[in-house]
Design a protein that fits this description.
Largest sheet: 6 strands, parallel
Helix content: 40-55%
Bound molecules: nicotinamide-adenine-dinucleotide
CATH architecture of the largest domain: 3-Layer(aba) Sandwich
Structural class: alpha/beta
CATH class of the largest domain: Alpha Beta
Shape: globular
Oligomer: single chain
Distance between the termini: 62 Å
Number of strands: 14
Amino acid sequence: MKIAILGTGYVGLVTGTCLADCGNEVTCIDKDAGKISGLLQGRLPIYEPGLEELVERNGREGRLRFTTDLAEGLRGSQIVFICVGTPQSETGAADLSTVFAVAEAIAKNAEDSKLVVVKSTVPVGTNAKVFEILSKAKIQHRAASNPEFLKEGAAIDDCTKPDRVVVGVRDQQSTDLLRELYAPFLRTERPFLVMSPESAEMTKYVANAMLATKISFINEMANLCEMTNADINDVRRGIGHDARIGFQFLFPGAGYGGSCFPKDIRAVISMASAKGMDSRILLSVDEVNEAQKLRLGQKITGHYQGILKGKVFAIWGLAFKPRTDDIREAPALVLIHNLLAAGAKCRVHDPEAMENVRAQLGDRIEYLDRPMDAVQGADALVIVTEWQEFRSPDFAKLASNLTDKVIFDGRNLYEPKAPAAFGLTYHSIGRATTQG
Ligand code: NAD
């Protein structure tokens, strides 16, 4: 099939590449000329495990193309995926201006009939508006919704082996075309769920709202554990074996970030409010998360009795989660801003996200290529992202390098006794501090 992808970011590039890898002819379109010229020279704009190799192979074999020219990119395609960003607007609602602008551009430039599929996360009713825009064109187009559930860091697997594919459609022809397109990804009997565009749009938000709720829930319980001498890790194990609860997404931490959860939760709150409804659960989920992003900083301030001026902190992990370079709404940025404001210095390491942070913070902090380099000359270590390489550090080396012999772990990577055995004081989330 011939496919056009409009918006070549995390979702568009991964989707386009995976579809090309099944034998489709895919053209990825983006208005960002720098991004497209980089891709044409084999430079990826994002880090995603396994993606570079797939882009290179499918490009070489002529199935994956990149362009800034919308009319050229649309030519001959049967399906056009809209994968542009839907950031939070000033009111908290999703900003849909780019979605509508590209729908207008498709209506203006398409030379033949298309199935236009909205993959971006959008509030209920957006597909109907896109359909209305397309209906003004001389050529008749169809519109469908196909929300994306991929996770950054595991995006290729999520795209090629999805738990389910959700499509919101108005006609059988669109259903059949999308079923055919997704057939290679659903060979292990994964469900292809057909519903209205409105239900498909809602499904994506409800999924993210549920996941964010689990995170804020466990973070609130972790904070209560700290006050009551209970250990959240034991509690987590104690509840997780209940099949009705399970283990997934119940790890306490430094708060959720990223380009999706924060803005999607606020978009649902705004959708509810537009209907005169208070989304009381999600208002709390957001509030708890904003507070949780401050937790590590509060522990640090508490440890140093409010005097951070001149202290040097090694920070491991900047991305909002491991296996990505995405720093949008990352808890590490909140922490760094607060430490700098208090007069402290930061020596940071992240395997993939340092360039993105450098673009924002420049030389206000120091960037180190290896985790142990960041620790050299630091007073304390703070762990914000659970990259695999931070899980088994040389505690003896940490103890000899950290002047104040203290670790603040926002991801509970270690058994509390392990660092303490080397004389390190260890603060984590929802567990008692162990003294070195
Ligand atoms: P992104 O910011 O990485 O990519 C969006 C791309 O669209 C950018 O490259 C931008 O240059 C391009 N663009 C903007 N205006 C354009 C125009 N007029 N014409 C052509 N290209 C244009 O965003 P993303 O993270 O890929 O997210 C896209 C959508 O998918 C959002 O609605 C998001 O909520 C949703 N989503 C994201 C994820 C994720 O993990 N990132 C997962 C599921 C769903």
